[in-house]
Amino acid sequence: MRRADARSNRDRVVAAAREAFAAAGLEVPMREVARRAGVGVATLYRHFPTRTELVATVLAERVADCGVQMRRALDDPDPWRALAGVVRVFAERQIHDRALNEALLGPGAVGAAFQEERREHAQALNVLVVRARAAGVLRGGVDADDVRAGLLAIASLRRLPAATSARVIGRVADLVLAGIRA
Amino acid sequence: MRRADARSNRDRVVAAAREAFAAAGLEVPMREVARRAGVGVATLYRHFPTRTELVATVLAERVADCGVQMRRALDDPDPWRALAGVVRVFAERQIHDRALNEALLGPGAVGAAFQEERREHAQALNVLVVRARAAGVLRGGVDADDVRAGLLAIASLRRLPAATSARVIGRVADLVLAGIRA
DNA sequence: ATGGAAACGGAGCAGGCGTTCCGCTGTGGG
DNA sequence: CCCACAGCGGAACGCCTGCTCCGTTTCCAT
């Protein structure tokens, strides 16, 4: 089995897809990913039999990254800083990675692959909110679903024209934080 | 000139497009709009030479509606109620009309046709914010761009699956209001 | 009633997408 | 070193889109 070149091609495809998805969203044509990777479409399809699988592979990395951030937040002894940090990091990522957004907002197929991770994140967020509430830093009546809604709002903004989205995302993140704080 | 049937067909096309766009977004195929209107595609194209023109025609109605709401808010003597009302009405509309969202967020071509109305709305919003700030009901540092960012966030949420978007939009609207209030 | 133009419908065109097929290339075990 | 075959590139297929062409229908002035 001649793995050397095949494996290197696979890596190049994943790298090209990662960049393309981050920059232009998940709807980049397969031809374009292949072109960026410097391979033919057939090569791409040999490693990823369907578009969905390529997308899932690239997103898996990103989702894993988010898990790391979450665990870091859980280690923070300051409840407000932990929660605010999650919101800010999330916003920051949305600014730089368009794919992440569509993983959350995309209809069924794409997001479905990460149900487990998603539940894990939700669990962690619940913990952060409970701690923050116990510390009295949250406005009355605010619950984890409010924070989730805020995060979704931030994520959705990624679809704005790139020129303005960064600033708007920053403002909304501040708005959300002001809206949940006591 | 045989206007009777032509005119009635035009009306049916606009009505069909309005419904289809509100329900399924601006990306509904022309064939589908024609089918819903009970006419052939050629008829549709005779009245609207290009897809963009059909979209613009339908959105013009919606944008005009928003202008009415804005003027109503300007007449409200209570500055907070006026501003909060705008946010709430806007959120309510996003829930029921998917097209409105894409008019705001869609890239260039679509939104460009309404620059004038948009500026008018922006102007009105500025007035509302200035009044609210003068009345001391806004948190320090909040400006019109923050409110605009909040509205954009609400609008962006329309792309979530229909099942959850209504509730999430409601929560975010509350979050935004909490975030700007003193 | 009747002619002719305005208006119609649906087949057809060009272009873009995801995916597949197939003849060639170049790698690495013997 | 050499040649079998894993692996390759790009042309091709089927489907969907916006849009156009043209033979046929239908209204309305006469």
From TrEMBL, chains A, B:
Signal peptide span: none
Highest taxon of source: Bacteria
GO MF annotations, alphabetized: DNA-binding transcription factor activity; transcription cis-regulatory region binding
Full protein name: Transcriptional regulator, TetR family
Gene3D superfamilies per UniProt: Tetracycline Repressor, domain 2
Keywords, sorted A to Z: DNA-binding, Transcription, Transcription regulation
One Pfam family linked to the record: TetR_N
DNA-binding region: 29-48
Domain HTH tetR-type: 7-66
